[in-house]
């Protein structure tokens, strides 16, 4: 009879572990998708910065031919594009670094609370651990 209780508890542990692995794989997929979206945003930010720098460089090269008018016309756009691109990259880096960590820890705690805590209660109820020579930690 005690062996049946032990096997039932062991089977429950295996099932719970499989569920946890499935949930963690779902979280990993979400984090990978989030990272892909962040990479797309960073591409936009980097492109904006490069375009702004190119416009500034072109305005400087054309300045002798336009009497300096190109500098006045392009400086505003170039500086704005460079600043916007840098802001996009910084914001995306922070989001990509902080958000998945916060979400992951929140879900890990929830998974632990839902599965292992209940399992450990069932384990102590279903088994007499001292009978098998196992001491509680």
TrEMBL record:
Q: Which Pfam families match?
A: ApoL
| GO CC terms, sorted | extracellular region; membrane
Its taxonomic path starts at: Eukaryota, Metazoa, Spiralia, Gnathifera, Rotifera
- The name under which this protein is listed is Apolipoprotein L3
Biological process terms from the Gene Ontology for this record are: lipid transport; lipoprotein metabolic process
- Similarity field: Belongs to the apolipoprotein L family.
Q: What is the top-level taxon of the source organism?
A: Eukaryota
InterPro entries hit by this protein: ApoL
State one molecular function term (GO): lipid binding
């Amino acid at each position: 009879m005690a062996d049946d209780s032990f096997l039932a508890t062991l089977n429950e542990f295996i099932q719970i572990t499989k569920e946890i692995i499935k949930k963690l794989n779902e979280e990993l997929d979400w984090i990978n998708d989030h990272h892909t979206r962040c990479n797309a945003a960073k591409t936009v930010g980097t492109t904006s910065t490069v375009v702004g720098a190119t416009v500034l460089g072109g305005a400087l090269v054309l300045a002798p031919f336009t009497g300096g008018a190109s500098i006045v016309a392009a400086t505003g756009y170039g500086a704005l594009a460079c600043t916007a691109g840098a802001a996009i990259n910084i914001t995306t880096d922070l989001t990509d670094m902080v958000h998945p960590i916060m979400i992951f820890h929140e879900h890990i705690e929830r998974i632990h609370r839902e599965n292992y805590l209940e399992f450990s209660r069932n384990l102590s109820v279903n088994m007499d651990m001292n009978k098998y020579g196992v001491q509680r930690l």
